[in-house]
Amino acid sequence: MSFHALRFNRSASRYESGADIQSRMADRLLGLWNGSAPGNILEFGCGTGILTRRLQQRFPEAMLLATDAAPAMLEQAKERCVVNESGSPKFVFQDAQGIENPASEVVSISPYNLIASNALIQWFPNLEKHLRFAIKLVKSDGAYLLSGFSHSNFSELNELLAEAPFSYQTFPGHDPKSVEMAAAHSGWKVVAIQDWEEKEILPSTLDVLHRLQVLGSTRDPREGGRLNRKNLNHLIAEYTGRFSELGGVPLTWKPWVALLHRQ
Question: Is 143 helix (H, G, I), strand (E, B) or coil?
């Protein structure tokens, strides 16, 4: 199991307590759809079912296959969703990074009218690989509703992690321009894309770190300096000293939503 899947496994039971922005992203994502109701839908990275439940409500007649690479997230989604008489949604384990298994149910029952994912693809360094995998699974007139975060998401934290003792070289995320480029190279056309910024004020730096932990958004320590007690104290002191403002400290989000059509 990947580092990210393990991390989300640990946060599954608490995830929705801190996922306000992910819920708003799901609403804005479905706001991009103006086509007819899809007959079948594949959802990548369903997590606890935030987007799954909205897809169910928006397209009650569709057969929905919801997938995730973290088993604990799938269990949470099963508990939070109501399966209809047609057996939809159905929940299946699947890694969405582009790992294709011809024997998997996801592949065997394709093609789909619509693929969807919410707040997922920022964790995939190779976005083009994922999009090439996805396009194999849709019909010739298929579409992909997806959302994610830009590289500059959590800009305050990134500023500190780029410095010693952490010295991270890269940060997760894809900006709208990189999404458009990856889409063009993998057979998709960007029909609509919207990006925006939300600044959240939390009481303290410890609250910021707790929010990231609840959401499974902690960074892979193998990519930079480990967060031992000394480094953690340094991070808290620097974050508080540099970014404190009236009411607490900021956590800045840079989300986007997009609608892609198969070219």
Answer: strand
